[in-house]
Amino acid sequence: SPLEAAKQTAAHKAINKHVENNFVLGIGSGSTIVYAVERLAERVAKENLEVVCIPTSFQAKQLIVKHGLKLGSLDTHPILDVCIDGADEVDANLNIIKGGGACLLEEKIIASCANGLVIIADYTKNSTKLGDQYKKGIPIEVVPMSYVPVRNKIRNTFGGEVNLRMAVAKAGPVITDNGNFILDWVNFKQLDDWKEVNTAIRMIPGVVETGLFLQMAKIVYFGQADGTIKEQT
Ligand code: DER
Q1: Which of 37, 57, 85 has the most ligand 1 atoms within 8 A of CB, as the residue to mutate?
Q2: Is any ligand 1 atom within 6 A of the Cβ of residue 107?
Q3: At 113, phi and psi to the nearest 5?
Q4: Does the predicted model carry a pTM greater than 0.95?
Q5: Are 26 and 80 in contact (CB under 8 A)?
Q6: Strand 161-164 to 181-186 pairing
Q7: Is the beta carbon of 30 within 6 A of some atom in ligand 1?
């Protein structure tokens, strides 16, 4: 499909351009990253590259192992050369919503340890203001016992609606790789400067992390349906 082709185009571009021998690279989560790991495995085999991959989720770890790539961790590699990851929406100021796959906590930690965060996405993620295109809300990871007061505080302070993310293949709420719940904050007011709101939300006791990756990416590759790539820096 054009969408899958767009994901693959962006993924291959990032791997071809941002991975060098002896690199330590963060591997993101989601569906677009699958194409990136496939291309990485090709390059490692063809060019006999030495790379260590640091996962941002159980899914990423499975991908790394499945493709026979070297698995590392922050214990042995606390500084990464690059982190490559997907996104749910990117605004005109390079503010990004991530967490559609409920992996935002480790994604943000790994991204923060990398010398550069490279985002790969299909054209549907290219937006002007957060919330224009992506309607599933800003994910917020919370400690399970706190989700009701946290939900109420966000709703009362910032407006919109806040929903506990329920699982599909499991009864009850989604449980993240770190044993937490995800709240999705929908119908929020679309802002230009998200820094203040993000900090205020993160200060609420019980909030672990938000899916707002503000000015963290150094470049975004948007794969297009016609096989070309749009870049945003
Ligand atoms: O959950 C996440 O943060 C993922 O990276 C998500 O933002 C991108 O998922 P996709 O590549 O399947 O669209």
Answers
A1: 85
A2: yes
A3: -95, 0
A4: yes
A5: yes
A6: antiparallel
A7: yes
